Amino acid sequence: MTAETAGRIRGMDWSTWMRRRGWTVGVWVLLVLMVVWYAALIPKFGGFQIASISKNSLPLVYLAIGQAIVVIAGGIDLSVGAMLILTNSIAAQLMLDQPLGVTLAVAVLVILIGAVINGVVGWVITVSRVPDIVVTLATSFILSGAALLVLPSPGGGTSEGFRAIFTGSGSGSGSTFWPSLVAIAIPMALAAWWMKGTRTGLSLYATGSSLGAAYLSGVRTGRAKVVSYAVGGGFSALAGLSALAITGSGESRAATGSIFTLRSVAAIVLGGVALTGGIGSVVGAVAAGIILFTLSPILSAMGIDPNTGQVVQGVLIVVVMMVAGVVELRRQRAA
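The chain above was modelled as a monomer; its predicted structure follows.
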């Protein structure tokens, strides 16, 4: 192989890498720029601000990971927010006045509950062939109602040790930020490895890319659909647990779940996950989830009214979805 040929191959490899991961890299660069911008807007930026951003982003980050997995497999889950408030309510009731060991056991149980419920939802979609958006929208109403039955009004609680796992403090506040960063990094790394490094994870990409082609290639597409929803449900439950750790009490309002559902969809689109399925990464979705949270303190630091801030966030989401749509259209034409 000549030096010229080797250089051409390296150039092609770099071009291919950027084409596949360029959006993800860009989202993380945008996140860094936004944090730097926020640091320049306020008088003092330090551990407290980093801890605030990282820990308060946790629920949306986990929902974004779960939603990304479902969408990559060719579906969409409009019940992730409802699952968050249901699991949050169950955990708040069962963890109240319990020691750390019991709360950890309850956390495992709650994640299993979320995975099982969502796995059943995926099975119903597969067997009935009713569109995902219809089944998951109906599921969201069921789960929201169940959350109110479990916890009619805000309340419940958990142990200080459990709160410290996610926030670095038994009170849920402080300047210790590394536990929340670890709580972001470990699930993100595990989910990314599972999606790209295991046969099951790759089957989700194949199913989302082309259901017919995946089936003809021997992929058990029905199983892939059920698995994607089950894993997504587990991450939604993890989001509910992190919300409990942050606030110290349960919250069962349906409006809260609806807001989180919309933001999870916005996060995956901003993170480079195509709503058509088969394209994207949970890594980009995580960065986008943090970006969507960071927008609020930045707008506040700029002196923008919170109501106006909501409009700005909404416009940003619309613009991002339009850009993502144009990129996907160009990708389809190129294919």
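Residues 3-41 form the longest helix (39 residues).
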